[in-house]
What does this fold into?
Amino acid sequence: MRARTEELLPFALLLPAIVFLVLLIVIPMVQALFLAVQADSGELTTDYLNRMTVDTNFSDAWRNTLLLLVLIVPLQIVLALAMALLVHSRIRGHAWFLYVYAIPLAISDLAAGILWLAVFTERGYLNTVAQGVGAIDTPRVFLSFESFPSLLAAIVLAESWRATAIVMVILVAGLQLIPRDFFEAADLFGASRIRRTIHVVLPLLRPSLQSALIIRTIFAFQTFAVVLALAGRNMPVIAGEAYAWYANNRNPHVAAAYAILLLLFTMVATVLYLRVLGLREAEVKR
Amino acid sequence: MQRSKGMRALALVGALAILVTACSTTGTSGGGGGGASGDVGKGFAFESTQFTPVTEQEAMRQKILGAWKGAAIEYITDMEPVIIDRIIAEAKAGGTGQIGIIGLENGQFGSIVAGNYLNDLSKVVDRNKDKKINQDMLTLGKFGGSQQLYVPWMQATYFLVANKKALQYLPSGADVNALTYDQLIAWSKNITEKTGQKRFGWPLGNTGLIHRLLQGYWYPSYTGGLVTTYKSSEAATMWEKIKELWQYSNPQSTTYQNMQEPLQSEEVWVAMDHAARLINVLKAKPDDFIAVPAPAGPKGRYYMSVVVGLGIPKTSPNVSGAEALIDHLLKPETQIITLRENSFFPVVDVKLPDDLNKGLKLEADAVAKQSAAKDAKVVPLPVGLGSKGGDFNKAITDTFQRIVVKGESIQTVLGEQAKIVQQVMVDANAKCWGPDGTSSGPCQVK
It folds into this structure.
């Protein structure tokens, strides 16, 4: 009797999570899929997928989303790693760093976008300060459709500020899981800080890096509010198009088509990370 | 942490359906607290796309509804899709819902009118006859049928606002109160040449109302139509003019959601926008700005009238209470409070008080001058597009984006976008409206 209860226990513990996932993730996902390929009359159609691909913003949205992905993700991982190592180093005031780094986490993404808009706009803080110290004569327009690089740079900066902290938190947690013995052993063999980081910390941090990369990549695919605030219509991104089709154009079908596409790409990226960074069987048995 | 809002919006529909099924039939009170005695009936929600700023919401609750003695009302503002989804969800759930009354712009009623979700309010109009509600607006509220699906609540329009610093650069011979689009372009050009700054602005941001400026101002003023003349030679001329003006427009225009902020920060000196999206700068600096009628094109001085209407969903939990609320909101004194607090103009016959706020006075004068101009012609928001209204707006905004911002060929873009416009008219089975005249079938691009 007791053995049977123990057998069932794992399933019972999993049940709430499964119910939650099915109700709020799986069912809406399937509904979105149908929304994308089913007309109001109920017949299957590729009209909405076609409408999405011929849209004037479609190719731009893809280019911009991928561009942001390649620019932001590596930058954030490196930054977050540096921040995590600093916090973990136990130097004086390391806890203080953690709190400061975590501040952007408390700010909604749209609010963060608006905040940076106040910095970069023509009459914004950046121009006012630069003008005040005499670096420029007249305010520069950073957020113009005419200067894509500065627009892109502003968005990368704002996104990095906003979302690096979440990566850092994951990495700090990962660092804390590494037993102190390993560091002591490395010290004993005379490893420098850099060698210790490369040969001890990074390999042991791989599981955390993997989760961080997956989460950050998914978020990068969904980058939306910061771009919306800083670039408006200048820089369409996939998630923004899905929103615009739903909210502004009142066409849930095309919006769902974008959402499904986003889902496919995030899934591909996730599987890729799991394969490349995943623990190999030999390591698990260690 | 964050999830895309697109996904969230989709998930919302599902979540709402669940919530509404769970709550609506249990008959919980939707009361916003207090005031309701036994005979005024159940409290209800008043959902509207208007008054989204917190200060305006407070004015609505404290002042506009201050003298209201009826059922408890919870005033909620939300975006159009959320309100529409909620009404549809409540209707599908059966029984009565939480929403007692809605306040939407004329153009936002499309899909709920098409879905037949609203009560006929003819009786309410009858009993308010003495208030002389604007007749044209009442007609709009019938959507071409016999039932009064909304009662006009308040109105607004779009006009031009300029910083007084810009006045010295007006082209010679131009009367700022009776500008033409050519003079507007010459003015902006002059500013750029004399100051080195691009100081005209467009509300091109994601929630900017650029499509309304094209639908109600540029297109009819240049072509005398909108749908029928979408790719006409006059339209091509108009796009050339817009491209010319674009050279003197602040390149940050693509981020502007409303024009009051860039006007106040002086990134922009001259701009056109919706009255409610200009009022803050006029109230803040009434002595630094002027408000004047929209410019005129070759076909006249066209302007768009925005009507906000009150509708009662068939699922309203307290129909008589909601109807009584319409009576209250249409009272001349309530209409004046609405103007004073939230800058929307009356739809009933009422004399404006003399002690209006300076900024409001500027707006009121501009509105009066605009409608009284001898070449003035009024255009309503698009009519009869139903749920296809968004597709139509996108078609015209994309046309702007492609021709003006991306610099694609005018002929190619007009040809391609006209096909999309035509498809929208066919899908919505929309007859011609306003400047395009009338048609028996769907409006045809010529």
Q: What stands out?
A: The mean pLDDT of chain A is 86. The radius of gyration of chain A is 23 Å. Chain A touches chain B through 53 residues (CB under 8 Å). DSSP finds 14 helices and no strands in chain A.
